[in-house]
Design goal:
The structure is a homodimer of 110-residue chains. With 110 residues, chain A is mainly alpha-helical. Chain A has one domain: Winged helix-like DNA-binding domain superfamily/Winged helix DNA-binding domain (Arc Repressor Mutant, subunit A), CATH 1.10.10.10. Helices cover 63% and strands 11% of the residues of chain A. Chain A has five helices and two strands, in the order ααααββα. In chain A, strands 1-2 form a two-stranded antiparallel sheet. In chain A, strand 1 and strand 2 form a beta hairpin. Chain A is globular. The termini of chain A are far apart. At the A-B interface, helix 1, helix 2, helix 3 and helix 5 of A face helix 1, helix 2, helix 3 and helix 5 of B. Chain A binds a DNA duplex (30 and 30 nucleotides) through helix 1 and helix 4.
DNA sequence: TCTAATACCTTGTATCGCAAAGTACCAAAA
DNA sequence: TTTTGGTACTTTGCGATACAAGGTATTAGA
């Protein structure tokens, strides 16, 4: 159980991944590798072995749909889009996220 | 695997508990039950079965020290205080938390 | 036809948070 | 003095998440 700054960050990221995925898909459809790129660019590192099961879970929960699309350079891609249910949940997560920020602020005050 | 708003919040809280505990102890010493009260008041619900192992972990990592203190109404209390190492880590966590907020903001933008 | 690049998926492991149950101390009532 | 209720600390078993590592499959180009 290491104690580096990287592990601290990784620990905090836990539980936010679902939210981040839905947030991205709320803006535009995407496939797994592109999600990883976008997350990495924002500083939320994720690896394939985390993302694929997560997408399957969200799909099974009815939050996502997907369609296959040919690529010009490689195998076909599985493009995910937000379902209506996913959009609802994203709205709830937006609220939950704001509340958590507020909770931490409250703890910091006083 | 339920999908309620409560579970969504619980999911997001994960990984922030360590940070919240250190944040509180950064302001004043506290014992477990008082930590639970303060966390609950701020909206970060925690139960004993979560908190005690967490405190033991942080103690074993050298982030906390504790001392026993008699109580006027009940068994003695284990008051935890932040160690120097804990203070360092809290500073790192403050930075990490700000970065995560920024990462989420980045994902939300565009 | 082999290789490199891209993309998707699975398995095993560690850890976290929770529910539930257990242990111990203290004070006041019976 | 024994019992009861409240407070506080601890442990065990379980479910879920994230990661590391390895695997499968498709395509383009050498």
């Amino acid at each position: 159980m290491e104690n580096t700054i990287e592990n601290i960050r990784a620990q905090m990221r836990k539980g936010l991944l679902d939210y981040c995925i839905l947030s991205i898909l709320g803006k535009h459809e995407a496939y797994a590798s592109s999600l990883i790129e976008e997350l990495k660019a924002a500083g939320m590192i994720v690896v394939e072995g985390t993302l694929y099961p997560l997408l399957i879970r969200q799909k099974n929960q009815g939050l996502l749909d997907y369609r296959w699309e040919e690529s010009t350079q490689g195998p076909p891609r599985k493009y995910y889009v937000l379902s209506d249910k996913g959009r609802e949940q994203l709205a709830q997560m937006d609220a939950a996220w704001q509340e958590i920020i507020e909770s931490v602020n409250t703890l910091k005050r006083v």
